Amino acid sequence: MTQAVGSTTLNFSKPLRIHLLGIGGAGMSAIAIVLDGLGHQVSGSDAMSSPVLDTLREAGIAVRVGHSNELVDSVDLVGSSTAIPPTNPELLAYQASGVPCVGRFELLSAIGERADVLSLSGTHGKTTTSALLTLMLQGTGEQPNCIVGAKVAGLGTGALWTGGTWLVLEADESDSTFLAPRRRGAVVTNLEPDHLDHHGSFEALRSSFVRFVNETEGPVLVCHDDEGARGLIGECPNALTYGFAGTDL
Q1: Strand duo 220-223 + 239-242: pairing
Q2: Tens digits of residue pLDDT in 14-65
Q3: Do the beta carbons of residue 45 and residue 66 sit within 8 Å?
Q4: Which residues contact 243 (CB under 8 A, 6 or more apart)?
Q5: d(Cα 137, Cα 118) in Å, to the nearest integer?
Q6: Which of 25, 62, 189, 240 could disulfide-link to 248, CB 3.0 to 4.6 Å?
């Protein structure tokens, strides 16, 4: 399957040489692990050294510290973190060279075409809930893929590509990338004012969540105990509620 991004079409069904800028961040390091699991040749750079880079190196992913205009040879695609400014010298050099450059939104969209995505979002509790769902699926005999924002006890990692049917995705609302992949199901744990530096207002953030729940193709589990999340129920025909009392589940 392919994912169209402006004039760039991402096709992750065949191996690519992919270089990631800001690879040391939680989101991009997880994407690196998954892309490696999909069979791509992955490399990356980050502004500073960290234990995350050591973990990536142990996984066989070539990483370097610092951003410069010295390009990695034969790169098919460059992905950049939202933390990478448009003035970044490495990004500018790849753009000038004609290599397609995309963001995390586009990478997640294309990865999501390779499995059935279960997205979990909310102001709090995303990581824990994503980890629990991954382990629950494993307990039923499934082999879920996952992108979780922390190391999952029992897995030894927060990012895993098994080739299984499901992709459990901790969906980040901070920069609207939670809208990226096509979703077969979703969970909203809660909704409170947060990341207003990006969204501008709570109303705009809430509108993003309305899109998130309504563009999900399957059931959406919404926490009835949280006032903000509960307010989404009437705007989502696929909503099922969970909580301590008076809910669907």
Answers
A1: parallel
A2: 999 999 999 999 899 999 999 999 999 999 999 999 999 999 999 999 999 9
A3: yes
A4: 223, 224, 225
A5: 11
A6: 240
| Biggest CA pair distance of the chain | 60
Half-sphere exposure of 225 (CA within 13 A, CB side): 6
Residues in the chain: 249
Catalytic residues: 126-127, 170
Is residue 187 a contact partner of residue 171, using CB atoms and an 8 Å limit? no
CATH code of the domain occupying 2-108:
3.40.50.720
Amino acid at site 155: L
Domain boundaries, the chain: 2-108, 115-242
CA atoms of 204 and 106, how far apart (whole Å): 22
pLDDT tens for each residue of 160-170? 999 999 999 99
Domain 2-108 and domain 115-242 have a common topology: no
Copy the structure tokens of residue 141: 């005999």
Q: What is the DSSP string of 163-209?
A: --SEEEEE---TTSGGGSS-EEEEEE----S--HHHHSSHHHHHHHH
